[in-house]
Write a structure and sequence with these properties.
The chain is of the alpha/beta class. It has a single domain, classed as NAD(P)-binding Rossmann-like Domain (Rossmann fold, 3-Layer(aba) Sandwich), CATH 3.40.50.720. It has 8 helices and 8 strands; from the N terminus they run H-E-H-E-H-E-H-E-H-E-E-H-H-H-E-E. Strands 3-2-1-4-5-6-7-8 form an 8-stranded mixed sheet, with helices on both faces. The longest helix is centred in the last third of the chain and has 20 residues. The N and C termini lie far apart (49 Å).
């Protein structure tokens, strides 16, 4: 079924020429849960033509508070497959590849081949560093996002900048396990990641490369930390 007016409300913020660029772009989203679910939804709706979602996990009851694709009826089902079903329902023009397995040293390079941007929607330092290294080898940016309680953090890792390695030198903090993961925090962080991804594809606006963007929803404050 064709929907010629699908992207009408993207204009003038996204021009017809830019819409074509998005159509020809390919993005890998590592993680299809709290952050990844929203990122995939937003990228599909804005018109990114090819999306690969990587997640070897299945839905659990604790995911119901924030993970967009989780439902009471699909507890125990694959997160990547749920993402594929959702994308097919909202935008049949998007080619979605579901990888029902974890990102590994063995498959990372192949999965990132030909991609425009990698999105980090993972939940541990080891996997994030693996993705950053593979994105660096592929010569593409990686958009990092993390949440804990009422707080979000995003930044963009450019190939070879070593930013993620420096920040996670001591391993992950695990703050989300202490402070929890709220639904609106996940939605905001994923929205920031999706916007950053689109900007990187289109080459427009100021990206979050070289700076950390942190938001505190409890105090409604926004902080920019510039990095050398």
């Amino acid at each position: 079924m064709l929907f010629p007016d699908r992207y009408q409300r993207n204009a003038v913020s996204v021009t017809a020429e830019e819409q074509e660029i998005l159509k020809n772009a390919s993005v890998l989203v590592a993680g299809c849960g709290g952050l990844g679910g929203y990122v995939i939804e937003l990228l599909a709706r804005v018109g990114v033509g090819s999306i690969t979602g990587v997640d070897g996990d299945v839905f659990q009851p604790s995911n119901l508070n924030r993970q967009l694709f989780s439902k009471e009826s699909n507890i125990g089902s694959s997160k990547a497959e749920a993402a594929m079903i959702r994308v097919a329902e909202i935008n049949s023009d998007v080619s979605f590849t579901a990888v029902c397995g974890m990102l590994t040293e063995e498959n990372a390079d192949a999965l990132l081949s030909g991609k425009s941007v990698a999105v980090d929607a993972l939940d541990n330092a080891e996997s994030r560093l693996l993705l950053a290294r593979a994105a660096g080898r592929a010569g593409i940016p990686m958009v990092h996002g993390a949440i804990s309680g009422w707080h979000t953090r995003i930044y963009t890792v450019m190939p070879g900048d070593g930013l993620l390695e420096a920040l996670f030198a001591g391993g992950g903090t695990g703050a989300e396990k202490i402070l929890g993961n709220l639904p609106f925090t996940a939605a905001l962080c994923a929205s920031q990641q999706a916007a950053e991804t689109v900007k990187l594809i289109l080459g427009k606006g100021d990206t979050a490369a070289g700076r950390i963007i942190e938001t505190d929803l409890l105090d409604m404050t926004f902080e920019e930390i510039k990095l050398r």
